[in-house]
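Handout, page 2. Input:
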Amino acid sequence: MTAAIETRWLGSGVDFHEALAVQRDLVAQRLAGAVPDTLLLLEHAPVYTIGRTRDRSSLHDPALLPHPVVEINRGGQATYHGPGQLVGYPIVDLRNHGRDLHLYLRLLEGVLIDTLADHGVTAGRRDGLTGVWVADRKIASLGIGVQKWITMHGFALNVTAESLPPFLAITPCGIADVAMTCLEAEARQRHGVRDVAKALAARLGAALAP
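Output:
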């Protein structure tokens, strides 16, 4: 039986531009039918990203940020990627999954919620806000881009405490007074990013299965 999605672990300390180039190449190949749906999993070198928007207030003063800023073709305000955080980029043909961006975002949220439950953390959604929360604390962020129904970008799940301090320099996702949290803090136990990645890949594969 063929897996619903092929998974690739790109490693830790991955440069954002290098990962973006891999995504763009896979999007083109997926559009041509040359590759199956593919999930890229990795830890980035420290970087802030923001969607294409005139309102960049969530970055505060970009000149004072401790890490580089990259503008990308996804929705949303500023967020941070770096060590201790699991980033996932699903390259998925939504022509096979209902051509519904809202449904796809809810699917990704569900996968993250189920993965956190596998690690002893009860998480959920908040009305009107994209992402995954533990009570009023945000533990995972989502932002996607789509080209001819092929998805790119995806989600970032804070796994270890190391992932949290850089968020203090921005307004994460443009949400005032948001408190960011991580799996380590909520589970009161340290989990390896690679181990969480394996669990999440299995969950996403099950969610996309026919």
